[in-house]
Design a protein that fits this description.
The structure holds 3 protein chains of 3 kinds. By secondary structure, chain A is an all-alpha fold. Chain A is built from 27 helices and 2 strands. In chain A, strands 1-2 form a two-stranded antiparallel ribbon. Chain A is elongated and about 160 Å long. By secondary structure, chain B is mainly alpha-helical. Chain B has 20 helices and 2 strands. Chain B has a two-stranded antiparallel sheet with strand order 1-2. In chain B, strand 1 and strand 2 form a beta hairpin. The chains are: A mainly alpha, B mainly alpha, C mainly alpha. Chains A and B meet through strand 1, helix 5, helix 6 and helix 26 of A and helix 6, helix 12, helix 14, helix 16 and helix 17 of B.
């Protein structure tokens, strides 16, 4: 099976084509085709997973793509344990989201199109996972960007949605520039894009470290864009304008995690280059803190989750920067499940109350028991409470950072864990407990249909259990599976586990006090720390900063260049033309008065003579004959004399 | 080769033109179908040519060489290699499509189609000719119908645009002519045979090469158009009728780069190396500059026109790199840009026919009204911004890799050039958003969906774009041997 | 007995009548007839000279026959033109035939 694993990716593509060309008007067939395709991919992924379990590989299959003298650009499949895990994660979450969307998107006028886009996304994402060259990864990398753009702007009649799509595309594209530049450096330094060959060259020290560092950091720029890391994190919260299933699938579980996946793929680069590793770790750390702090005060349920996503992605990047291949990818997996669950739960809530603002929710647990229970489970998981999956992966990250000895980053990470617990439970309490703050919405709220709740339940199970594969005492667990050849994870550290749990519980307790017990009034708190609150509420003013500098400069520069084009370059061309005309006018004057004057003068003189002579030319033949006759007579007389 | 396919390709449109001229003026439909028939025949021949072409041999194929004016050593000398075959195919395809797309022309139909067929004669001739005299004749033949097509059937400022186009390109042609004459007299014995002149390229003096290369370069750069010789392009595009814009962008611009690949670089290898950095810089400037200026445009057609400047910059960059990958990227970009920009102009024309405006700000939200049209437009827009899976990406990537592996200076040039990728994304998405997304502008409630004939013109291009994007092998293998041969000859 | 002089005088008289007619007639047919007179005076000259100067050769007579032929052709063309003129424009007066004049 494994040599045909490209089928996993191509099934959704087939579904996309089928829907676009044949079923673009038929809702039922469209979602059936789409779901069938992704479920089939899931089944195949499971098969591939077990094959990889038996033989870790990596299994590499190369296909010729571009081939010319002196230049080869192949594509390949690269199935190693990480890819197998990712295949599972992506197909599971994607299947859940597909099924969920049947309920959520019900009645949308562009329903088949939505499913076609979901299929296209699944294709791109799966392709990204199984691709065996950096170049192939880049191709799918851009394709997921495209589908993200299409899906964020799915309701493009809303200007904000269209804007958000554009922002997402352009912002990630800026990161992709780095990726592209990194690829070019790689091509110059290594002459190949194949994972295995690049790894091999690096292991044998055949590439100068300077190139490795440059390529590593530049390719990581791609991850910064895609995984919404500081300073390119600004697009992800806006991307929440898309339909909620999309946010769950693309902007929480899979696509944004592609950056983490890529970073894991350049792990051998990070290992070699210390400066690249430090850069990556700090960017992850800063992002985690930044996003968590903003998440504390936001009121839009999806945006809170979005910032939470950014923050968790920061965690993963941080772990990878510290050399925690296992920790980073492990958190990627667990996060995919519980964050998808959170988003789908939020979607369920939004579906019920038709608002995103948590200030208008409250008390929904009575109306939506399944949603609220699963949401609570996911929140506990993300907060890192024993023994849910989030606990294990987060602990792994802490242990990795400790192992590397980055104390500052460790404190930061623990702090972020507390903040995460706080804002997640703020969200839970405000949404599901207490008194309804909007009676009208509350009245109309109802539990979502089965197509939406079943995926929630399924994901809730995973949010609880998925982490168990990575329990540090497990000998053949996750760590030994994904890592290159041998088990790799730092020693389990009880102290860290306890500290992590305490911090998480403290965060939850604070949220409990503020938003459940109302022992501390959040409004008063906001008043007291007004500058901080405003600063956080306005997302550290990043949007304004970019608006005021980069974008403004671009617009200004484009106007300047356009003016330059019009005035200077085209002006010169037109000047040449005008100069030519002017010149020609001068010569025309000369021509008219001097050259032509001479010609005309000759003409005038001739005409003057002719005026006299024409009188002789009477045209009467008989006159001429008479003259001829006279002439003859004269000649004869002359002769005779 | 017994069947002189190239001669047939050149002269069938000419026959078509004569036939069209003998038809009754009022028989509009007959004229339309006759001319599309003739161009279809040429297209079929170009397909046959592409299939029959043996891409494993770097030499000229389908050669026809007949003495024409022996006293001056002028021959009727035709032949194709891996550079010209794709261009001939593109010309055949785009000519046919443009002629079909011109069915909407109602004013002086007979003259229009006659000129169009004449234009096709010139285009095909340029890509086949291997004798300078013949080459120059075809090169100039194109100018005349183009001048009239813009000047008679164009927009409000058509006279200005037509004259600007004509004089500007004529200026280039004259420089080229000077170069040709210089070469003729420099070569001993005098010859106008391009292959022969290439073979003797090592005998030309260094200074001579530098000067004549510059003359040829300016001649071709105006056609490309390379920065800063590009300003005729937006005017010509904006005023020209849709189909003429398609040909202009799709084929005429490629003649500049084709000339550089066929003449300038192989004939003056030392000058090519000498000038490579400036040419690469010009390419870089064109990429960035064109993208910025595109972003500032308010007219849809002008935006696409400036995007051509930007995209042709990639060609210059790839050429200057003097590596096989760079040249292949350039060649690929020529083909891909012809397809993409041709299609974009067609689509802008479709919109203009309905809305009678091309102002971006006048639209908004029409994506909900015309979903199919929007889908196709976005497809080509994405191709233009270099989305993987579509042809533009392959071209850009090969160009970048080719240039990047060419040396230290190029690496910096490429690093700056890739900024163009994000700028392109910026202006394309801005345009897509302002035209198609957002709330529907009520003015366009009555906008109708793209019709069958229009669909017929863009579908082949869409298929080609996707095909070239996902499966570049056929085109790459067609061009690579010839290109490798030339590049090896230049770099020694 | 008539001598050469008599013939020459007759011929001169005829020629003068012809010239006079040519210069003074306004009717195209009259002009044509005058021209015929001049032709015939020349014919008389030819034959007279032939008879009195070189009686053994027939050159003069042959020339006269030529002239008669040409005259006949000329008369035919001229008359045809005149008839057409008359039919189309209703004129035979040479003064009025000036359409070709600039």
């Amino acid at each position: 099976m494994i040599e045909y694993s490209y089928i996993i990716a191509f099934l959704p593509l087939l579904s996309y084509l089928l829907i676009v060309f044949f079923f673009s008007k038929n809702n039922k067939v469209a979602h059936t085709v789409s779901i069938t395709a992704i479920l089939a991919s899931f089944v195949l992924s499971v098969i591939v997973f077990f094959e990889v379990l038996a033989n870790h590989g990596p299994h590499i299959f190369e296909y010729e793509w571009i081939s010319m003298p002196g230049f080869e650009l192949p594509l390949s499949l690269y199935i190693d344990p990480l890819a197998a895990v990712m295949l599972l994660v992506v197909t599971i979450v994607s299947s859940c989201v597909h099924i969920y969307s049947v309920g959520y998107m019900h009645g949308d006028p562009r329903y088949p199109r939505f499913f076609s886009f979901l299929s296209l996304f699944s294709f791109s994402m799966l392709g990204l996972v199984i691709s065996g060259t950096f170049f192939g990864t880049f191709i799918f990398w851009e394709l997921v960007g495209l589908t993200s753009y299409l899906l964020i702007g799915f309701w493009f009649e809303k200007k904000v949605a269209a804007d958000a799509g554009k922002k997402a595309f352009v912002t990630t594209k800026i990161g992709d520039l780095g990726f592209l530049a990194g690829l070019l450096i790689l091509s110059a330094a290594a002459g190949t894009f194949n994972y295995s060959e690049v790894y091999h060259l690096i292991e044998n020290n055949q590439i100068p470290v300077i190139f490795i560092t440059a390529a590593g950091i530049l390719m990581f720029c791609g991850a910064i864009g895609k995984s919404a890391q500081f300073p390119l994190h600004v697009w992800l919260p806006d991307a929440m304008e898309g339909p909620t299933p999309v946010s769950a699938l693309i902007h929480a579980a899979t696509m944004v995690a592609a950056g983490v996946y890529l970073t894991a793929r350049i792990m051998s680069i990070i290992v070699v280059s210390h400066s690249a590793a430090i850069t990556i770790a700090y960017i992850g750390g800063i992002t985690a803190l930044l996003a968590a702090s903003i998440g504390l005060v936001q009121n839009d349920i999806k945006r809170v989750l979005a910032y939470s996503t950014v923050s968790q992605l920061g965690y993963m990047i941080l772990a990878l920067g510290c050399g925690g291949y296992t920790a980073g990818t492990f958190h990627l997996m667990t996060h995919a499940f519980f964050k998808a669950l959170l988003f789908l739960g939020a979607g369920s809530v939004i579906h019920a109350v038709h608002t995103n603002d948590i200030q208008f929710m409250g008390g929904l647990s009575k109306k939506m028991p399944i949603t609220s229970k699963t949401f609570f489970i996911a929140s506990l998981s993300i907060a890192g409470i024993f023994p849910l999956s989030g606990f294990w992966s987060k602990d792994e990250i802490f242990a990795t950072i400790l192992h590397e000895g980055h104390w500052f980053l460790l404190v930061l990470a623990v702090l972020v864990a507390g903040m995460t617990a706080f804002y997640m439970f703020r969200l839970c309490f405000l949404t599901f407990t207490g008194k309804p703050r909007d009676e009208h919405a509350y009245e109309h709220a109802h539990e979502s249909p089965n197509t939406m709740t079943y995926p929630l339940i399924f994901l809730a199970i995973l949010a609880v259990c998925a982490g168990w594969v990575g329990i540090p005492w497990l000998h053949h667990g996750y760590a030994s599976f994904v890592y290159f050849h041998h088990p790799h994870h730092p020693e389990p550290n009880f102290a860290l586990m306890i500290i992590g749990t305490i911090v998480a519980l403290a965060g939850i307790y604070l949220a409990y006090l503020m938003y459940y017990k109302r022992a501390i009034d959040p409004v008063k708190m906001a008043e007291r720390f007004k500058p901080v609150y405003t600063f956080l509420f306005n997302k550290w003013y990043f949007d304004e900063l970019y608006m005021g500098t980069v974008i403004r400069f671009t617009y200004w520069f484009m106007e300047v260049l356009f003016r330059f084009d019009q005035v200077v370059i085209d002006g010169f061309v037109n000047f040449c033309g005008k100069f030519g005309l002017f010149n020609s006018r001068i010569w025309m004057t000369f021509d008219v008065y001097v050259v032509d004057g001479a010609v005309n003068g000759a003409g005038y003189i001739t005409r003057w003579f002719a005026g006299g002579l024409r009188r002789i030319q009477s045209g009467a033949v008989q006159n001429y004959a008479f003259v001829i006759f006279l002439g003859v007579v004269l000649l004869i007389l002359f002769r005779m004399m | 080769m017994d069947f002189p396919i190239l001669t047939y390709m050149i002269f069938i449109p000419l026959v078509g033109m004569v036939v069209v001229m003998t038809m009754r003026k009022e028989a509009h439909n007959a004229i339309r179908y006759t001319s599309s028939f003739f161009s279809l025949v040429v297209f079929v021949l170009s397909c046959i040519l592409a299939i029959q072409y043996d891409s494993s041999i770097p030499d000229m194929q389908f050669v026809e060489n007949v003495s024409w004016i022996p006293s001056l050593g002028i021959n009727y000398f035709l032949g194709v290699d891996g550079i010209s075959v794709p261009m001939l195919f593109l010309t055949g395809l785009l000519s046919f499509i443009s002629i079909v797309a011109s069915f909407g022309i109602t004013n002086r139909v007979k003259e229009y189609f006659a000129f169009f067929l004449l234009l096709e004669v010139g285009m095909i001739g340029v890509f086949c000719a291997l004798d300078f005299f013949l080459f120059y004749i075809f090169w100039e033949i194109m100018l005349v119908p183009m001048y009239f097509l813009i000047g008679v059937w164009g927009g409000p400022r058509k006279e200005y645009a037509a004259i600007k186009f004509f004089l500007y390109t004529l200026f280039g042609s004259v420089l080229m002519l000077v170069g040709i004459i210089a070469l003729y007299f420099y070569a001993e014995p005098h010859t106008l045979n391009m292959m022969e002149l290439i073979r003797r390229n090592s005998t030309y003096g260094y200074t001579f090469q530098l000067i004549v290369f510059a003359a040829f370069y300016v001649g071709f750069a105006i056609k490309v158009p390379a920065w800063p010789f590009h300003t005729w392009l937006p005017d010509a595009h904006v005023e020209a009728p849709t189909a003429v814009s398609v040909i202009l962008a799709g084929v005429l611009l490629k003649m500049g780069t084709y000339g550089l690949m066929r003449i300038s670089y192989p004939m003056f290898p030392e000058a090519a190396v000498y000038y490579s950095i400036p040419v690469a810089l010009i390419g870089m400037i064109a990429i960035i500059y064109g993208a910025f200026v595109s972003m500032a445009q308010k007219d849809l057609k002008k935006l696409v026109a400036y995007s051509s400047v930007s995209h042709m910059g990639y060609c210059m960059l790839g050429l200057a790199a003097l590596t096989t990958a760079g040249w292949a990227g350039c060649m690929y970009q020529m083909f891909s840009h012809g397809v993409l920009t041709g299609a974009l102009f067609l689509l802008v024309g479709v919109l203009y026919d309905r809305a009678h405006t091309r102002e971006i700000a006048a639209f908004g939200g029409i994506g909900a009204k015309v979903p199919l049209f929007t889908g196709i437009f976005v497809l080509f827009g994405m191709g233009s911004l270099g989305l993987p899976g579509l042809s533009g990406f392959v071209a850009e990537f090969m160009t970048f890799i080719g240039a990047f592996n060419s040396g230290y200076v190029y690496q910096w040039i490429v690093i700056v050039s890739i900024l163009g990728v994000v700028l392109t994304a910026g202006y394309i998405l801005r345009m897509v958003q302002n035209v198609f997304l957002g709330p529907l502008n009520t003015r366009w409630e009555g906008l109708t969906e793209i019709n069958g004939r229009e669909l017929f013109t863009v579908i082949p291009l869409a298929v080609l774009t996707i095909l070239l994007g996902v499966w570049p092998k056929p085109l790459v293998s067609m061009i690579s041997v010839s290109i490798d041969n030339i590049v090896k000859m230049i770099t020694g | 007995m008539a001598t050469l002089d008599h013939y020459l005088i007759l011929s001169a008289i005829l020629f003068c009548i012809g010239i006079f007619g040519l210069l003074t007639r306004r009717n195209a047919i009259g002009v044509l007839m005058s021209i015929e007179l001049m032709f015939n005076s020349a014919n008389i000259n030819f034959i007279a000279f032939s008879k009195f100067i070189t009686p053994e050769a027939l050159t003069g007579q042959i020339f006269a026959v030529f002239v008669i032929t040409v005259a006949a052709a000329e008369a035919a063309v001229g008359l045809a033109i005149v008839v057409l003129m008359y039919r189309n424009f209703d004129i035979v007066n040479v003064d009025n035939i000036n359409f070709m004049k600039w």
